[in-house]
Amino acid sequence: MKKGDHLFLVDGSGYIFRAYHALPPLTRKSDGLPVGAVSGFCNMLWKLMQDARNTDVGVTPTHLAVIFDYSSKTFRNELYPEYKANRSAPPEDLIPQFGLIRQATKAFDLPCIEMEGFEADDLIATYCRLAREAGADATIISSDKDLMQLVGPAVSMYDPMKDKEIKIPEVIEKWGVPPEKMIDLQALTGDSIDNVPGVPGIGPKTAALLLEQFGDLDTLLARAGEIKQEKRREAIIANAEKARISRLLVTLKDDVPNVEPLEDFVLQPPNGPKLIAFLKALEFTTLTRRVAEASGTDAAEVEAAVVKVELGDAAHGPDVGAGDSVPTSALRGGRPEGAGGGEAASTPAGASPPTPLRGEGDTPQTLAAARAETAASMPFDVKSYTCIRDIAELYRWMDEARDAGVVAFDTETTSLDPMQAELCGFSIATAPGRAAYVPVGHKNGVGDLLGGGLVENQIPIRDALAALKPLLEDPSVLKVAQNLKYDLVVMNRHGIDVRPYDDTMLLSYVVDGGASTSHGMDALSEKWLGHKPIAFKDVSGSGKSFQTFDMVDLERATCYAAEDADVTLRLWLVLKPRLVAKGLVSVYERLERPLVPVLSNMEQRGISIDRQILSRLSGELAQNAARIEDEIYALVGERINIGSPKQLGDILFGRMGLPGGSKTKTGQWSTSAQLLEDLAAEGHELPRKIVDWRQLTKLKSTYTDALPGFVNPETGRVHTSYALASTTTGRLSSSDPNLQNIPVRTAEGRKIRTAFVAEPGHRLISADYSQIELRVLAHVADIPQLKKAFSEGADIHAITASEMFNVPVAGMPSEIRRRAKAINFGIIYGISAFGLANQLSIPREEASDYIKRYFERFPGIRDYIEETKEFARREGYVETIFGRRIHYPEIRSPNPSVRAFNERASTNARLQGTAADIIRRAMIRMDAALVAAELDAVRMLLQVHDELIFEAREEDVELAIPVIREVMENAAMPAVSMSVPLSVDARAAHNWDEAH
DNA sequence: ACAGAAGCTTA
DNA sequence: GTAAGCTTCTGTT
C-alpha cells in the first residue's frame, strides 16, 4: 500500500446490527425472516465496488476488507468482567443473518477478517494505523460512535445508510468535541449497551462542556474540585476510578498483532457468476440483474448457489455450516425480495357509497347546511380508505373527482422542507368518508438502501403524476388542501400547477383569526369535526424512532394520508359556508388565497448567500468572543458558563454583590441587556463585557453559523418558509431560516446582510414603506396635524415633538425628538405609562404626564383608541380597513391585566393588521405589474413586514424601481382611498446591506 | 427527547 | 406597551 491508495474498512458486525434495528417493527414482523440486512449489505458492497471503477467519484477504494467481531470474549473482559455483560442475546430472527453476511462477503471475493480476542473495532483501528503509516487514506464504513476516535486527516467514516460522510467537523458537530477527545468523552458518558460505566449523570453534552473547560480527562479528574455545579462535582470525584476504567475499555487497540498484510486487501473485479449464484439463491432479483449487466454475465445461465443458514450461535466464527442448516427459501416463505410490510387495505366493493357533491337538488343554503352536517356527523373509518396501486383504478378515481367537481388533495413527502421533500405519495378525497392514497415512492427497509428499492406494485411516479396533472390543472374542478402552499411547492417542482383551489387553513384563519391559536389540521378537525386524526408521529415515530414517510408501510400510510384528505374535504364543507355567512369572502379571496402562489414562487426562488463572507465573519466573531471570554474569566476568577443566565446572576449579584438586580418570575436574578447596560453605565466592567459577548455569540450561532446550513444543495440558495396563518394580526412569519430578523441595528450585525447577494450581473432591490403604521394611524384616526406632516414629507417624530413641547423643528435637541419617537411607537403598541417609562428609563409619573400631554394635542388619537376598545369589547374582535377580523376572546376578562393586555393588542392589531393587508395587496399585484412593464425577469424574493426584496438584472433595475414603488404606494387602492400618501424608499445594490 | 424560561434578533 | 422565530440552558420524562 502506498500514498494515494485508499483503504475501505467495512464494519460488518456493526452494519448488520444497525440495519436490523433500523427496520420498523411492523415491516420486520410481517416479513417472516428478514434478509433485509443481508440485501442492504450486498447493495452497499456492490455500490462501493462500482464507485471504485467510476473515476468521476471523488473517493474510490483501492483496497477493501470487511471486518467482523469474532466472539463476545475479548481482552476487555480481563480488564472489567462486566464489560458487555448485560448485552442480551441477539434477536432470534437476526441470528441467521450473521452467517449469511459472511457468505456474502466471500461471494464478493472480499477479505473477511476477524480475530479471536479482539473486537472488529480494534482490527479497524489497527488497519487504519497501518494505512496511515503507509501514507494512504482510509474510510471506515460505519457510523458507530466507538470508531469516531479514529477520525483524522487521513481517516474518515462513511454512513452507508444515511449516505453521509463523517469527518472531523461532523464529529465535532455531533459530539461537541474533536475526534481525539472522543475517548475521554466516552469515558465520562459510558455506554449502557456495552456496560461501560462512565460517570453517572454525565451525558454527552455535559461531558463535552467539561472537556472544553478542562482540556482532557486527566486534568478534569485532577481539578474536579473546581467544578461549580455541586451534583456534577460530587459525581465526578466519586466516580473518577470508573472513568479511568471506562477510558481503557473504550480506547481501541491499534496494534493487534499478526494481522493480515494490507496487500491482501487489493480490490479485485468481482467474479460475476460466483456472485450471481449467491444473489440468486437469496432471490435478490434487482441486484442480480445489476451485477449481470455490469459483469456481462447472463444471469439465466447461472444456477443459484446452495446457501446454508446457521441457526443458533450468533456472532460466531468462520466455521460456517455448524449447527442445523436449512435452505433459505424455507425460512423466507417464498416471498420475493424485499416484500416487507403489509398490503394496504382496499375498499370492499360497495362500502361507504360516495355522497356526490354535485347533482343534488335544493337551494344553495340548505345544500350547504346539509353538506356541513354530513361532513361533521359522518363517522370516520380509516380502514375503508383505498390504497391505489393500479393505474386503471387511479384513472377511475380521477374521473370520480372530476364528476364531484371538488376534490381534497394532500401530498406525503420525506421532509417538512418542500424544497427538499421527495414525493412519497398523494391522497385525494371525493366525498366525506371516501378517500384514497396513491403511494409512488415508498421504499422497503434496509434491504434497498442504496439504489432503488421501491415497494413493489406502486404506480410509477411518472405515470401517477401524468394521471393527476390534468385534474389538478382542470379549471372546472376545485382542489381543496390544508396549507396548500406546501403542496404547491412540491407539485411545482414536478411541473404541475394547482388551480383553482381553496385552502382550509386560510379559511379558518379568515373566519377565526385570533380566536384559535392554531389553524393546523389536527386542531381544526377536533374543533369542527370532533374527530382526532391519526397523529403524524404515530405513523412516522419521533426522535430516535423517526422514519421518513417513504419507509412507512402502505397500510398505515394509507390510513393516515387518506384520512388527511378526508378531514380536509370535510373541513372545507364546514368552513366555506361560514366564510360566506360572515361576509368575509372578499378578505379571503383578495388578501389570502391569491398570496399562496406568490409566496410559493418566492420560496422556490430563494436568495443567494455568500458563504465565504459568513465563514470569515464567523471566524472573527469566534476570535473576539474568545478574547472577551478570557477577560470575563479573569474578572470572575473562574471559568463559568457565560451563556447561563443562572450562573451569571449568581456571580454578578450574589458573589460580587453588584447593585440593582431584580428577579424574574421564576426567582432568578435578571441579567437582561437593559439591566447590564445600566450597570455598565455606572462604571462596572463585567456587565459591559457580558453584553458584548452575548452580541457576538448571538450573531455567530444564530446567523453566521446557521445560515450556510440552509443553503439548498440543488439550487445553491436559501429558501425560507413563509407562514400565512401563524400571526394574529395578518402579518406573515418566516422560518427555516427566519429571514425577517436578520440584524440591521448594529454595524457588526449589518455585516451579516452583506452576505445576502445578487447573482452576477444582477442587483438586489430593497423597497420599504416609510412609517406605514403611523400613516395608517393618521388615516384611520383622522389626525389633521399628522396627515399634513405626511403630505408634506416632514419628519413625523420632530413634528410630534414640536406639537407636544412647543419647540420649533429647526434645531430641535435630539433627546426631545427621541422621546416623541418613543411615544409614537408607544401609541402603535397600545401605550401604557409603565411601558413608556421603561422604554425611556424615566419615572412612571413623567411618562404618564407625556401621554396626557400627547392626548391633549392629538385628541383624535385618544378617541380612536377608546372607540377601538369599545368596539372590541362589544364585538369581541377588531377590523382592519380591509375588513380582516382579529378576535380577542379575552377582552372582557375580569382580570384587569389580561383585559389591559387585550386592549393594547387589539388597538395595535388594527394598525399592524392594516399595514400587513396593504403589503399583501402589493405583493399580490406585483408580478402582473412587472410583466406588464416587460420586466418578467425581475423576481420578488423576500418580505420583511414593510419591505420587499427583489432580484433584477442590472439593465432592468432603473425601470423596475418605479414600477415597484407605484404598486406599493397604490396598494390600498381602489378598495380604500387613503387620506395619507404611502411613501416607499427603494434602492438597488449588490448586497442587502447596501440596498437597504 | 422534550418543554419552558431567558435572552436576543427583526418590524 | 405590539407582532414574530431561534438558541441556549435547565429540569423533567
Q: Could you characterize what this model shows?
A:
Single-chain monomer with multiple functions. It comes from Mesorhizobium australicum. Its EC number is 2.7.7.7. It catalyses: DNA(n) + a 2'-deoxyribonucleoside 5'-triphosphate = DNA(n+1) + diphosphate. This protein is α/β, with parallel strands linked by helices and about 1000 residues long. The chain folds into 5 domains: about 5-265, 5'-nuclease (Rossmann fold), CATH 3.40.50; about 270-330, no CATH class; about 365-580, 2-Layer Sandwich (Nucleotidyltransferase, domain 5); about 610-715, Taq DNA Polymerase, Chain T, domain 4, CATH 1.20.1060.10; about 775-910, DNA polymerase, domain 1. It contains 40 helices and 24 strands. A 6-stranded mixed beta sheet has the order 3-2-1-4-5-6. Strands 9-12-11-10-13-14 form a 6-stranded mixed beta sheet, sandwiched between helices. A 4-stranded antiparallel beta sheet has the order 22-23-19-24. Strand 5 and strand 6 (about 165) form a beta hairpin. Helix 8 packs across helix 9 (about 205-215), helix 28 packs antiparallel against helix 29 and helix 31 (about 770-780) packs across helix 38 (about 895-930). The chain binds a DNA duplex (11 and 13 nucleotides) through helix 27, helix 29, strand 17, helix 34 and helix 35.
